[in-house]
Amino acid sequence: MRYAGKVAIVTGGGDGIGRETSLRLAAEGASVLVTDISERAAEGTATAISEAGGRAAASVGSVTAEAEIAAAVAAALARFGGLDVLVNNVAFTEQPVLEGLTPATWEREFDVTLKGAWLFARAVLPHFVAQGHGAIVNVGSVNGLMYFGNPAYSAAKAGLLSLTRSLAVEYGPKGVRANMVSPGTIRTNAPSWTARLAGDPTVFEKLARWYPVGRVGRPADIAAAIAFLAADEAGFVNGANLVVDGGLTAGMPLMADTLLAEREG
Predict the structure, then answer these.
(1) Among this protein's residues, is 171 annotated catalytic?
(2) pLDDT tens readout for residues 217-232
């Protein structure tokens, strides 16, 4: 029960990593405000937490709308009497390659993935500073570290890492920690994966060959990392980027196998 008595906001908490993180934090004692652009999704996660004996509420809004963000923060404070953790999970991508990428698409992906995280952090920071503590965990991606397609999304995630470090350095002296989790491929119902699955139902099995652990990730894998970084036990972890990718960025086993086969041949 690392989160007993604590209050968390999880953006994009209606599905995938956000839902699993909301459930994980609630199971460890947190009161969770689940925010999502979809009322049905947000309410679904909040209901699941309540039915399991936890405390949760749903908030509907966009991470690009400052008034809706302010309303979510106010709701958490009013409903639960405090706020200790922000998990910036929302992201968006629609263009897989540079060809065809338009200024409008670039701006849309940056607004949701990077600007949205900054706006939410900006909204909670005055409260965190006033109380002398708070934890922000931003959900990044291995796309921000290496090329895996989706260039605007990747650039936004790289920017999110820089933002995380800026928050950590500027607000660390005020009791606020900021860290990032960078997932590899995670099997979710995100629109980008739904589209890929429609074209190739075996895409996750094919991608698994690139992972030293032999599989792609699950939302629970990322939720566990987030739960650690936001907890008091990680009190000396600040400005870190925890890569949770099954070893993907540690090396390329298929390339190593090819070289070994050439040598043996």
Answers:
(1) no
(2) 999 999 999 999 999 9
What distance in Å separates the CA atoms of residue 151 and residue 96, rounded to the nearest whole number? 7
Two tokens, residue 146:
């290496």
Catalytic residue among 3, 115, 147, 153: 153
Instruction: List the 7-11 sheet strands across, edge first.
Output: 55-60, 31-36, 7-11, 85-88, 134-139, 176-183, 241-244
H/E/C letters for each residue in the chain? Answer: CCCCCCEEEEECCCCHHHHHHHHHHHHCCCEEEEEECCHHHHHHHHHHHHHCCCEEEEEECCCCCHHHHHHHHHHHHHHHCCCCEEEECCCCCCCCCCCCCCHHHHHHHHHHHHHHHHHHHHHHHHHHHHHCCEEEEEECCHHHCCCCCCHHHHHHHHHHHHHHHHHHHHHHHHCEEEEEEEECCECCCCHHHHHHHHHCCCHHHHHHCCCCCCCCECHHHHHHHHHHHHCHHHCCCCCCEEEECCCHHHCCHHHHHHHHHHHHC
115 is catalytic: no
pLDDT digits (tens, 9 = 90+) for 4-60: 999 999 999 999 999 999 999 999 999 999 999 999 999 999 999 999 999 999 999
Domains and CATH numbers, the chain: 7-196+217-252 (3.40.50.720)
92 contacts 115 by C-beta, under 8 angstroms: no
pTM for this structure? Answer: 0.94
Select which of 157, 171, 174, 211 is catalytic: 157
